[in-house]
């Protein structure tokens, strides 16, 4: 009897394990979401690169205009603005599908695209003797940027937290983020003072302002996109006041960020803006995301070190991409005399930007009222 009972127990079919299949389908669904988010981010950064070059082209054509805001009257500049908004919308949508640590490093796509578009669209030609050397360095830089981005994505912190109103409010009032906000506000005010009052038009100063604003944009975009996704899924989050606070902060920082980028595009090459902006914005955005969302809590030392290595490799790649840009001619005076009889004027010196070499040079303007 015992032997027959044991045989019956052995022949009894095992109950189906329901945990294996849902786990696999959940992993597959997560992979699809990450893929959709990555594709949206790549599309958005490509469109933003095209928009920046369109605006740069508009500023080049209107460099000699007396009206400093003449570009507002051109369709090209407004087309660039529309494409920039479209690209930013694509990047915004990507945050709803993929984590912040995956989307932020993908901005390296704009660096590579801007370097290529700048050569074709702005007609920035290389000298024949330097073509091979610059091509090799640019190719190596693109490869390093891709490898660094891969390491960033692979070893990025794997934190998945639902963007509910309670969680966002808890992160917002935490003392690490409040301390970070205090430091960022002080630094932003100092940079803005030197930029406006001391006329510090260095590209690092301008893009630091952009990066500081961009870090808040990234944090708020992640919160707004996550709350919208939860609301669409049935867990309504739009009745939380924190949603509208984040939305207002997102719009305000994005608008001022675009304004500073437009000012930078008038003085510097778009590829240089993209490369330096990538280094600064990625570093500050990852820092802000780590402080706000606590992404690196619980991560082991190996993942953190490999993530930092990916940052360094990507930074080196974007540096090599723009290292051998066409150098500026130190001085290109342009003298124009009014030859009308009885109306002889003394030539005057005015600081007018000459954008043929992406730098600001001196030129002589006879219509200037401030004579030598």
From TrEMBL:
The topology of this chain with respect to the membrane is: Multi-pass membrane protein
Q: Which GO terms describe its molecular function?
A: magnesium ion transmembrane transporter activity
Write one Pfam family the protein is assigned to: Mg_trans_NIPA
- Where in this protein does the record put region Disordered? 1-25
State the compartments where it is located: Membrane
Q: Which UniProt keywords apply?
A: Membrane, Transmembrane, Transmembrane helix
Q: Name one GO cellular component term.
A: membrane
> Which chain regions cross the lipid bilayer?
35-55, 76-97, 103-122, 134-153, 173-195, 202-230, 242-260, 272-294, 300-321
Cited InterPro entries: Mg_trans_NIPA
Q: Which PANTHER family match?
A: NIPA-LIKE PROTEIN 3, PTHR12570
Family indicated by similarity: Belongs to the NIPA family.
Q: What is this protein called?
A: NIPA like domain containing 3
Look up and give the organism this protein is from. Panthera tigris altaica (Siberian tiger)
Q: What is the lineage of its organism?
A: Eukaryota, Metazoa, Chordata, Craniata, Vertebrata
């Amino acid at each position: 009897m015992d032997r027959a009972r044991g045989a019956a127990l052995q022949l009894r079919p095992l109950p189906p394990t329901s945990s294996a299949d849902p786990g696999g389908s959940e992993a597959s669904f997560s992979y699809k979401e990450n893929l959709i988010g990555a594709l949206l981010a790549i599309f958005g950064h490509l469109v933003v690169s095209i928009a920046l070059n369109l605006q740069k082209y508009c500023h080049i054509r209107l460099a000699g205009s007396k009206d400093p805001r003449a570009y507002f009257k051109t369709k090209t500049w407004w087309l660039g603005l529309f494409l920039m908004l479209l690209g930013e919308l694509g990047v915004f949508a990507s945050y709803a599908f993929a984590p912040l640590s995956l989307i932020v490093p993908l901005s390296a796509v704009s660096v590579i695209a801007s370097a290529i578009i700048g050569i074709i669209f702005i007609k920035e030609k290389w000298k024949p003797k330097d073509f091979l050397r610059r091509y090799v360095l640019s190719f190596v830089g693109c490869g390093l940027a891709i490898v660094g981005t891969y390491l960033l994505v692979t070893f990025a912190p794997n934190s998945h937290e639902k963007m509910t109103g309670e969680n966002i409010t808890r992160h917002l009032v935490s003392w690490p983020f409040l301390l970070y906000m205090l430091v960022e506000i002080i630094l932003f005010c100092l940079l803005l003072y030197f930029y406006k009052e001391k006329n510090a038009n260095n590209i690092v100063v301008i893009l630091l302002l952009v990066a500081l604003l961009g870090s808040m944009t990234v944090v708020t975009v992640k919160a707004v996109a996550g709350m919208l996704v939860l609301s669409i899924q049935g867990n309504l989050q739009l009745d939380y006041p924190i949603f509208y606070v984040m939305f207002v902060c997102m719009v305000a920082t994005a608008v001022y960020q675009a304004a500073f980028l437009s000012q930078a595009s008038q003085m510097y090459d778009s590829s240089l803006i993209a490369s330096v902006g990538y280094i600064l914005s990625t570093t500050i955005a990852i820092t802000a995301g780590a402080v706000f969302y606590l992404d690196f809590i619980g991560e082991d030392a190996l993942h953190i070190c490999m993530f930092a290595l990916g940052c360094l490799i990507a930074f080196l790649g974007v540096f090599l991409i723009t290292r051998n840009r066409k150098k500026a001619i130190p001085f290109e005076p342009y003298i124009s005399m009014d030859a009308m009889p009885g109306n002889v004027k003394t030539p005057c010196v005015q600081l007018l930007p000459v954008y043929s070499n992406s730098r600001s040079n001196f030129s002589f303007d006879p219509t200037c009222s401030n004579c030598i």
